[in-house]
Design a protein that fits this description.
The chain has 112 residues and is mainly alpha-helical. It has one domain. Helices cover 34% and strands 5% of the residues. The chain is extended and about 50 Å long.
Length: 112
């Protein structure tokens, strides 16, 4: 029963990027998208491109960083670890709050 329900949920989700639910689908992974950073030229492969760059030994050396393996997490638009789950997990740690939750702004707009 549980496996059937889980399978149906994955089928319904389709090609949705579960790390960024607002990202467009990558229909052609061979496409070389580039541009000015506009959402109109959004490259759905941005995560793999970023990780390749940050995990490059030469780049890490140029940043004077300790050799490490980078990964991506996206927060509010992340279908795997939602903001609700993040808050629940933080509350479970039962640590004192140093700064109350507040929205983040960029150019006077709330960042989601």
């Amino acid at each position: 029963m549980c496996e059937d329900t889980t399978y149906k949920a994955w089928v319904e989700m389709g090609n949705t990027d579960t790390y960024n639910i607002y990202a467009p689908n990558c229909l052609n992974p061979d496409t070389n998208a580039s541009g000015t950073g506009s959402i109109n030229v959004f490259d759905p492969r941005w995560q793999s491109i970023l990780l390749s760059y940050l995990n490059d030994f030469v780049v890490q050396k140029a940043f004077h960083a300790q050799p490490t393996s980078w990964d991506v997490c996206s927060g509010d638009t992340d279908g795997r670890v939602t903001i609700t789950s993040s808050r629940y997990s933080i509350n479970t740690l039962n640590l004192p709050i140093e700064t109350a939750w507040r929205p983040w702004y960029l150019n006077k707009e709330v960042i989601t």
